[in-house]
Recover the amino acids of this structure.
């Protein structure tokens, strides 16, 4: 029997929806799939859905509470598989993010890995397969 469950998306709460969407578009070449305004329980929210456009429908959702502050960053780590980890790190810095840990090789896993944050401090793991 196969598992019919699949991982579909990650959502991150942000303070500045447009600035954060711009960051992820410019650094990770994501495109905007949809914008949604609605309610989740008693909370009014705005959301931007970003995608790679590769056809696998992987989605990053950026949520903003309309009537209260976002939770503190750090509750999740986003992971991006990239073609060039060093170039991605340069784009992160140029777009207002910060380097937490420079790119380093992990030969036993055949990858280069670096850790950065977006402009609001959300942790991102950047992975390049060798």
């Amino acid at each position: 029997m196969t598992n019919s469950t699949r991982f579909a998306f990650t959502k991150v709460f942000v303070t500045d929806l447009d600035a954060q969407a711009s960051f992820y578009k410019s650094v990770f070449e994501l495109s905007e799939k949809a914008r949604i305004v609605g309610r989740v329980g008693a909370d009014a929210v705005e959301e931007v859905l970003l995608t790679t456009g590769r056809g696998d429908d992987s989605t990053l959702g950026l949520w903003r509470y309309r009537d209260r502050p976002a939770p503190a960053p750090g509750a999740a780590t986003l992971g991006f598989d990239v073609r060039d980890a060093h170039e991605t790190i340069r784009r992160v810095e140029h777009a207002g993010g910060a380097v937490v840990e420079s790119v380093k090789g992990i030969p036993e896993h055949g990858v280069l890995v670096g850790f950065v944050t977006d402009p609001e401090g959300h942790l991102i793991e950047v992975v390049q397969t060798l």
Notes: The longest helix spans residues 17-28. The mean pLDDT is 87.
